[in-house]
Amino acid sequence: MAGRGKLIAVIGDEDTCTGFLLGGIGELNKNRKPNFLVVEKDTSITEIEETFKSFLVRNDIGIILINQFIAEMIRHAIDGHMESIPAVLEIPSKEHPYDASKDSILRRAKGMFCAEDFR
User: Fold this and answer.
1) What CA dihedral angle connects 71, 35, 40 and 12, to 10 degrees?
2) pLDDT per residue over 34-86, tens digit each?
3) Residue 17 domain-assigned?
4) Residue 3 confidence (pLDDT) above 90
5) Does the CA dihedral 7-82-44-72 come out positive or negative?
6) Percent of the chain having pLDDT more than 70?
7) b/e for 74-102, b at 16 or more Cβ within 10 A?
8) Domain holding 22: CATH number?
9) Is residue 117 part of a domain?
């Protein structure tokens, strides 16, 4: 990846992935693995979690965008990710609005700022 930035990966419903792919984020790595997963009704939680974990270890990915309702399905895996890169951002979908109270990254950030207030 010399001379190139890191990729954005997407785990989302069909509308979310289509929008980002039309925006140009679609890539295949040297092993021909895509940087996105379209989650459909028959997509297993195991497949979602395995894809998320595979994105975490890819050195060409800097940000993982995931629909919040899908993140809820693998919350334990997302909560276990403590590194800053790749950053994991939970985003809304057409059918599921964003709920800040469910966003573990936002809760973690708020916790850091609140802890600093008491020093």
Assistant:
1) 40
2) 999 999 999 999 999 999 999 999 999 999 999 999 999 999 999 999 898 99
3) yes
4) no
5) negative
6) 84
7) beebbeebeeeebebebbebeeeeeeeee
8) 3.40.50.10580
9) no
Average per-residue pLDDT for the chain: 87
**What band does 1 get if pLDDT is binned at 50, 70 and 90?**
very low
Domain holding 52, by residue range, is: 7-109
Cβ neighbourhood burial of 41 (10 Å; 0-12, 13-18, 19+):
exposed
**0.70 exceeded by pTM:** yes
User: CA angle, corner 99, sides to 94 and 85, nearest 5?
Assistant: 95
Q: How far apart are CA 38 and CA 36, in angstroms?
A: 7
Q: Does 115 reside within a domain?
A: no
- Distance, in Å, from the CA atom of 51 to the CA atom of 38, rounded to the nearest integer, reads 11
